[in-house]
Amino acid sequence: MKGLVYRGAKKVAVEEVPDAKIEGPLDAVIRLTTTNICGSDLHMYEGRTAVEQGTVLGHENMGVVEEVGPGVTQVKPGDRVSVPFNIACGTCRNCQSGWWSFCTRTNPTEGMDGAAYGYANMGPYAGGQAEYLRVPFADVNLLHLPAGREFENDFTMLSDIFPTGWHGVELSGFQPGDRVAVFGGGPVGLMAAHSALIRGASEVFVVDQVTDRLKLAEKIGATLIDFSAGDPDEQIFERTGGKGCDRGVEAVGFQAHDAGGDEHPELTLDHLVNIVRSTGGIGVVGVYVPEDPGLDRPEKADRVGWQYGTFFSKGQSMGTGQAPVKRYNRQLRDLIIAGKATPSFIVSHEIGLDEAPDAYDKFDKRVDGYTKVLLKPNA
């Protein structure tokens, strides 16, 4: 089968890779109908993670069940399913507590709880930017979708970014009527803004400098903050009469850049500590890593010098970490079906798998119009 393979910094290629197959009684094999390029894939693409060359990328996956192992009872061939990026056993302490994103059994990498498809340090699992995908613990992990092709471009957001955006809002301690600032207008940040508005935010600021992203934020009713036009904190304080926000969502991560293009991993955290009111909350779903091969000393990535003293003095709270997709995906699916959520508003391109290397290059360079790329491997 064909798959998109990582071949070094800013090098990916579509190659023949080993066929996805049943390896255990609880496995399923999925024929991919849609698989997305995620903003967090760019950390690997740019050589800023420990991902191994030869890895098939792709953790935002959906499709149709092709085959199941003898122990699978809840899904069958022909079922249309969403595949959460988390790979969970369903029975460990964390899974039983609803933290499927930190399963203690599925990732053999030392010091890492939680597994995912085609991602650095997240276990030995091939990704889904390919024609087929093996899904371990299929009964635990797969979400049933209505048959057919309806809502395809909405449902494909259920594997990661829609639940992740929702999780960022949840981690912030959000309450209806809160004013929210989302730093980062990429796909996850836009999903966080969409989620906050669905949940009853009084106002949502989206902070970015990319015109295409800001236009999409405006489309869903968010208030735009272009940080290339001036200090974002000052802009928010001016618009709120000096009050700032009740909640904040960090959707950028360790490769945050200022308006001049210089990288500062603490940048968005400092902004959020500044503009979120005392006793307010911050949800961090942007990716931070313990090691960054792009630095002179990779381990330096594990220590980010942000304004913890101010954070403490203001009595703020913070939640972090990867989203437990299964906690939210069933409800978000039903919001889509009911017409209450339309996460497909961010989609800019639908292309074949063979076009993926070029799309990675353009998405990484923030070429105008490249906001969310969907791959159709079996179209």
Automatic annotation (TrEMBL):
Its cofactor is Zn(2+). InterPro entries: ADH-like_C, ADH-like_N, ADH_Zn_CS, GroES-like_sf, NAD(P)-bd_dom_sf. Gene3D superfamilies: Medium-chain alcohol dehydrogenases, catalytic domain, NAD(P)-binding Rossmann-like Domain. The keyword Ligase does not apply. Keywords: Metal-binding, NAD, Oxidoreductase, Zinc. The keyword Iron does not apply. SUPFAM superfamilies: GroES-like, NAD(P)-binding Rossmann-fold domains. Pfam families: ADH_N (PF08240), ADH_zinc_N (PF00107). Residues 25-140 form the Alcohol dehydrogenase-like N-terminal domain. Residues 187-256 form the Alcohol dehydrogenase-like C-terminal domain. PANTHER family: GLUTATHIONE-INDEPENDENT FORMALDEHYDE DEHYDROGENASE, ZINC-TYPE ALCOHOL DEHYDROGENASE-LIKE. Belongs to the zinc-containing alcohol dehydrogenase family. This is Glutathione-independent formaldehyde dehydrogenase.
